[in-house]
Amino acid sequence: MTTPECLTAQQIADYNRDGYIVLERQIPPETIARCHEEIARFREEARGLTAHTDRIDLEDSHRPDDPRIRRIKQPHLNSPVFGDLLHSDAILAPVRDLIGANVRMRASKLNMKSARFGAPVDWHQDWAFYPHTNDDILAVGVFLDDVGPENGPLMVIPGSHRGPVYDHHADGHFAGTMSLAKSGLDVKDAVRAMAPAGSISIHHVRVVHGSDRNRSDKDRGVLFYELSAADAFPVAGSMGTFGSLEEFDAQMVCGEPTLEPRLADVPVRIPLPLPPTQGSIYEIQKQSAAKGFETVEA
């Protein structure tokens, strides 16, 4: 066992037990301010758009003269501010404490969840989209705004990461969402990840989670970095495959790559057949009748 860089033994135990932790005020205010400046730049980029692009996912209520962004795609590749934050110890130190010194980037996204119209993300496990040879995979969420009960916080079913991978299919296709009731889970057991701007959440790839729409007059932007242990390789049929070894190894953010995948006894369901409509999780989930957040009270 190596000595943890920043997490306490209790925080590591909480993560292993519950599948998530929240670390308050992890990111300096000046960094959060720069992130908001970048969001403003992307919002101007969305002005005049009539369809999603490879950088911006639009809200259903978007209009070219009233730009509304649902998601900024791969912000770590499209903004030096978000790229620099990814490589900081504020992000990577707690990640190394949880999954080891050799860490690979999988993807990033900035879910805007703007005041009064930010779209929900229905219940799901990230693992359903991209199963790997082991599950030392997590997502770090950077709170760019204060997150409270009314503005669509991340909701997690504690301990669900130690259970099965649930059925995320509908009408014979992968739909990216699951029914809590059919899975034997209860929304009453869900907890909200809430904290001030500058805090981070970390959730396990197999934990069941989602978020309601933003019902408040406060924005709730969260920047997500999806990271994996270097010896976690995507399973064939996953949405997380790679084109070449060079491309795969270029995603390393710290430590060393390997050619020896670690095989763990983990449950796997393949996200095939692919959904008829491709796109972000928002577009994929529209193809399912499961709407877990229509009745959830803020």
TrEMBL record:
Q: Which UniProt keywords apply?
A: Dioxygenase, Oxidoreductase
One term of GO molecular function: 2-oxoglutarate-dependent dioxygenase activity
Question: Is NAD among this UniProt entry's keywords?
Answer: no
- The keyword Transferase is annotated on this UniProt entry: no
Q: Would you say which domain of life the source belongs to?
A: Bacteria
Transmembrane ranges, per UniProt, are: none
Signal peptide range equals: none
- Alphabetized PANTHER family for the sequence: PHYTANOYL-COA DIOXYGENASE DOMAIN CONTAINING 1, PHYTANOYL-COA HYDROXYLASE
Name the UniProt record assigns to this protein: Ectoine hydroxylase-related dioxygenase, phytanoyl-CoA dioxygenase (PhyH) family
Q: Which species is this record about?
A: Bauldia litoralis
